[in-house]
Design goal:
Layout (H helix, E strand, L loop, with lengths): L12 H13 L2 E2 L8 H7 L1 H12 L2 E4 L4 E4 L21 H14 L5 E3 H12 L12 H16 L3 E6 L1 H6 L6 E5 L1 H7 L28 H18 L3 E2 L5 H8 L1 H11 L2 E4 L3 E5 L15 H17 L9 E3 L3 H13 L14 H4 L19 E6 H15 L5 H4 L2 H14 L3 E4 L2 E4 L39
Helix pairs in contact: 4-5, 4-6, 9-10, 12-15, 12-17
Length: 474
């Protein structure tokens, strides 16, 4: 492989790495998203970005006059990067469905569309989907639909020309909104590489479904595996050696991996006995900040400290070690849950993706015996133990927590554990959670609740004042 950033001078390397982090964090860049300066920064380095992103990661960068679209190679199913509503909450299934149907409906309209007209078009399609529907007389349906439209507006696919979507969501009889349609950005938003309606499993969308076999040659196999290893480190908080397949383990340990990723991103690669991580202390690349602000992040950090301390106990107080689900088992479980909702109506068997009919593994192996990797076990904490520790946290620090989450400990615990799992600090299993090695980084964390001084009651304005009274204020 050629040297990363080969055509970039040392004086410009930091600017180039900033463009790399920008396009990795925002796979779609438009004249207005994520900000007005982003597209120019990406276009300046477009040629070198295309070369390096393909060589290092197997990602394809497609640029047009008004868009830059990074087409990622997906190795797994990641639920940590959802689309977000206007309130900053993750999209639910209804909103995702409305988003896809809105994209389809916009393809049938001209240069402009009224929001009410667009809603009627989406409703006509939604009613044909079992359990979906879109009733503009219902406020929850209108809110979900406007969240999908707003997501497209933020990226420049739609531009508000007149009116207000929020007002329409409040009362469609009294308000309306008119949008200009940008077809170039619409095409960049949704540009599938496969015919989606002929897939019977979400795993057919993964890059591993088309992984190279021995027929491609050993050099091509090694190059493909090296890209997968770099993606594993880049796209995850940590890549644990125990979680990697035998074909990736050597690539993860190779010095070239750290050199390539550090020069590409400008970040630091940290190695430990258990794995390897790309450290982003400034948040320039990560889409999730941890530690971070807010009740969930704060509760998660305090809970992480308690789990880590418990994991260090020895003797009769030591936690029971249990094996964690493998990466293949986690992928199979997620795929099973997604596939359970896929429609089979309209599927043509002859057009099913070939990888779904192929029973052979994506990476061929030699006929020799391959030793099974040693089973790795991690400390297990029960759900009741976690609930007890969270109650202690709320009792000690709850004054600084949001009132709705403080009053619903089970919901707060679930969200805190989801965050810790997303950061590869724990694995959620039946009955509790397993503490992963990275959790030790947060051992001994302490916190202090900042109390605000009681405000002086406002002085009451007297209706009648005594001009002879003296002001006692110094």
């Amino acid at each position: 492989m050629s040297r990363v950033a080969e055509g970039v001078s040392p004086l410009e390397l930091a600017d180039y790495q900033k463009a790399v982090r920008l396009v990795l964090r925002h796979p779609l860049v438009t004249p207005v998203y994520p900000d007005k300066a982003a597209l120019a920064a990406v276009r300046r380095w477009a040629g070198q970005l295309r070369t390096d992103l393909m060589e290092v990661l197997g990602y394809r960068l497609v640029t047009t006059a008004d868009t830059a679209r990074l087409q990622r190679a997906q190795d797994g199913l990641d639920a940590t990067r959802p689309a977000l509503t206007r309130a900053g909450r993750p999209f639910d299934r209804r909103r995702y469905a409305y988003l896809v149907l809105t994209l389809a409906a916009l393809g049938r309209h001209g240069a402009q569309v009224a929001l009410g007209e667009l809603a009627d078009a989406v409703a006509a399609d939604a009613v044909r989907v079992d359990g979906l529907g879109l009733d503009t007389a219902r406020k929850p349906d209108r809110d979900a639909f406007v969240d999908a439209v707003t997501w497209l507006t933020e990226r420049g696919a739609l531009t508000l020309a007149d009116g207000s979507a929020t007002a329409w969501a409040g009362d469609p009889e009294r308000a309306e909104a008119l949008y200009d349609i940008d077809r170039e950005i619409l095409l960049a938003v949704h540009h599938p590489t496969r015919v989606l309606q002929h897939l019977t499993s979400v795993t057919a969308l993964l890059d591993s479904s088309g992984a190279l076999g021995l027929s491609a040659g050993r050099a091509a196999q090694r190059r493909d595996q090296a890209r997968r290893a770099r993606r594993l480190v880049l796209e995850n908080p940590v890549a644990y050696y125990a979680d990697a397949g035998t074909e990736l383990l050597g690539q993860l340990r190779a010095p070239a991996l750290a050199e390539d990723l550090e020069r590409l991103t400008g970040l630091t690669v940290e190695r430990r006995a258990e794995g390897i991580a790309l450290i982003d202390t400034s948040g320039r690349l990560s889409d999730i900040r941890f530690p971070g602000g807010g009740t969930v992040a704060q509760a998660a950090l305090l809970l992480a400290a308690r789990i880590s301390a418990a994991a260090q106990r020895s003797g009769r107080h030591a936690l029971e070690p249990l094996p964690a689900p493998t990466a293949a088992e986690r992928l199979a479980d997620r795929a099973r849950r997604v596939d359970g909702a896929l429609p089979s109506r309209g599927l043509v068997a002859e057009l099913v993706h070939p990888a779904e009919r192929d029973e052979t593994p994506p990476y061929e192996t030699s006929t020799g015996e391959v030793p099974e990797p040693a089973e790795t076990r991690y400390p297990f904490v029960t759900h009741s133990w976690l609930r007890g520790r969270l109650r202690e946290i709320i009792a000690e620090y709850g004054a600084g927590f949001a009132a709705d989450l403080r009053g619903d400990p089970d919901r707060l615990l679930g969200r805190a554990l989801d965050l810790l799992a997303a950061m590869s600090l724990i694995v959620r299993v039946d009955g509790g959670a397993l503490a992963l090695p990275l959790l030790a980084r947060y051992r001994g964390v302490t916190a202090r609740v900042r109390t605000r001084a009681a405000a002086e009651p406002p002085a009451q304005t007297a209706l009648f004042t005594d001009d002879t009274a003296k002001d006692s204020t110094p």
